[in-house]
Write a structure and sequence with these properties.
- 53% of the residues lie in helices and 12% in strands.
- It has 19 helices and ten strands.
- The strands form three sheets. It has a four-stranded mixed β-sheet with strand order 2-1-4-5, with no helix packed on it.
Length: 427
């Protein structure tokens, strides 16, 4: 691919159609102009040729991104920038053409936001290195990476590969398009807004310099976007690597390492991409599992979906639970978690029984339903009129016998253990 005539490739019919379809698939919120992704087709039909001409003549002007603050689980906020749907379309078209060019340059141990790569591959590679004896971990946390990228350094790096001035110009315009915070405009002097279609590629271009430095030093590492861990053989090596890379990141990349979150660790103390690690004594090797914080986050969401006061049908609750379960298992399936799945299954079934018991409402209705489900009338009536709290009634006895795992499965509930067993990949 000729890197000097990229704008025409970006503006080709096939590339723009693909960009449009991807933006619509991604959905997403409105930008500062309030245009929804469902309105993009009509907008492009009217203005598509104008937009293409503006891009060719360097007259296209991106609008500011809308700042959205997402609370972090451990406190603080993550700043997301929501570009307008038109800007997302243009960024997507650019990213589709530039990605194959840069894929040839990126390191094999970089896994974030790249075609046919995922977080699970990063975890498996990290485990391979740990089990090769590199079990001292340098966990580097870049402080607000997307907010602190130096534009000049980034554009210099881009200019080494991309020779089309029109493309370089529009990328620079996206970087300096500004931010709208509560209807107040702020200049974007540094940073690449997390949330734009182009931002992941720009982040990888910047951090590829770190990958090359680590490779030159002969280090074992995996990186997923700005989450990077390096595995070495001793504590002394780990501390030396931490010092040297912190200096390199500050001086050469113009980025800041968060020294309170960055640390030298053993695998058992590490949380990486939602996973924790432990040493299996029987098999004499390190393995992955969902980290305790990831489990706590799952439980919190599960409790929200099985809240007795949530005024939706139990079938809808099961539908939303199944989405949560499938998504969670599909992400963590490379980890060891049979016992965890069994325990969570029991908790989910218990909470659903409480939802069903409350839904039955009156003692008479509860007794009649228990009898329909095979409970002897004597026990059904005594349970229905017990007067005990719902949580107590649903923990034992008749309710457990009536609303069994099999009945909940027929009702549509996915078993975490069964779903995990079907999809599990042993590390």
């Amino acid at each position: 691919m000729d890197a000097s005539s990229l704008m025409e490739q970006i503006l080709s019919k096939d590339n723009l159609n693909q960009a449009y379809l991807q933006v619509v698939r991604n959905k997403g919120a409105e930008g500062v102009d309030g245009m929804k992704y469902t309105e993009l087709k009509e907008h492009l039909e009217k203005n598509g040729e104008i937009i293409k001409e503006q891009l060719r003549t360097r007259k296209y002007k991106p609008q500011p991104v809308r700042r959205v603050e997402i609370p972090k689980p451990d406190g603080g906020v993550r700043n997301l920038g929501v570009p307008t749907v038109t800007d997302r379309f243009v960024q997507q078209a650019i990213a589709q053409v530039l990605t194959p060019i840069y894929e040839k340059q990126f390191h094999e141990h970089s896994y974030g936001f790249r075609p046919n790569r995922c977080a699970q591959q990063a975890i498996i590679k990290a485990l391979d290195m740990m089990n090769d004896g590199y079990d001292w971990i340098v966990d580097i946390d870049l402080e607000k990476f997307f907010d602190t990228v130096n534009h000049d350094k980034l554009m210099t790096l881009i200019g080494k590969t991309i020779k089309d001035g029109d493309v370089i110009s529009i990328i620079r315009k996206f970087l300096v398009s500004g931010i709208m915070v509560d209807d107040e405009y702020k200049e974007s002097v540094i940073g690449t807004p997390q949330g734009g279609n182009l931002s992941p590629l720009l982040a990888n271009i910047m951090l590829n310099e770190l990958d090359k430095e680590m490779e030159q030093r002969g280090l074992n590492f995996v990186r997923y976007a700005d989450d990077c861990i390096i595995m070495v053989g001793s504590e002394m090596s780990a501390k030396r690597v931490m010092r040297n890379l912190t200096k390199f990141i500050g001086e050469k990349l113009g980025l800041k390492v968060n020294m309170t979150k960055s640390k030298v660790n053993r695998p058992s103390g590490l949380k990486y991409l939602g996973f924790g690690f432990y040493f299996d004594i029987k098999e004499h090797q390190y393995k992955a599992k969902p980290h305790a914080k990831s489990v706590a986050k799952f439980k919190k969401r599960m409790k929200e979906l099985t809240c007795r006061s949530w005024g939706v049908s139990n079938s809808y609750k099961v539908e939303k639970l199944n989405q949560l379960i499938r998504g969670w298992i599909n992400y963590f399936k490379i980890g060891s978690m049979k016992t965890l799945c069994r325990r969570l299954d029991e908790n989910i079934r218990y909470r659903l029984r409480m939802c069903i018991w409350k839904h039955w409402k009156t003692p008479q209705n509860r007794a009649e339903n228990l009898i329909k489900l095979g409970i002897k009338p004597k026990y059904a009536w005594s349970t229905a009129y017990t007067g005990a709290r719902i949580a107590y009634v649903c923990q034992r006895g008749c309710v457990n016998q009536a609303i069994t795992k099999e009945r909940l499965t027929r009702f549509g509930l996915v078993s975490m253990l069964d779903y995990y067993t079907e999809r599990c990949v042993t590390c």
